[in-house]
């Protein structure tokens, strides 16, 4: 199935690119831009992005490597009060 009509990219091309990237570097984070570049192409109109991403998400090799997951700091549970001093009013 053709996913990107501007660049004639099929779902097979996308899956092959993801599988190749994962095999060559298990820690890589696969992005749509990397898939386009690995195929020697670049996005044109961008109308395919929804289907492009859905196709990528269906590939089991898209998953972020376990040691790179949860790198974002968790929300702080201790809500400290605001340290700003209250404004003095002249009223
Ligand atoms: S349809 Fe993919 S860039 Fe236009």
UniProtKB/TrEMBL annotation:
Residues 82-91 have a biased composition (Polar residues). Residues 64-91 are annotated as: Disordered. It comes from the Bacteria. This is (2Fe-2S)-binding protein. It comes from Rhodovulum sulfidophilum.
């Amino acid at each position: 199935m053709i996913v990107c009509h501007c660049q004639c990219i099929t779902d097979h091309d996308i899956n092959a690119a993801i599988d190749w990237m994962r095999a060559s570097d298990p820690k890589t984070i696969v992005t749509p831009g990397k898939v386009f570049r690995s195929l020697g192409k670049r996005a044109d109109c961008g109308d395919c992005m929804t289907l492009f991403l859905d196709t990528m998400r269906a590939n089991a090799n898209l998953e972020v490597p376990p040691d790179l997951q949860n790198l974002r700091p968790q929300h702080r549970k201790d809500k400290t009060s605001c340290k700003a001093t209250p404004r003095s009013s002249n009223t």
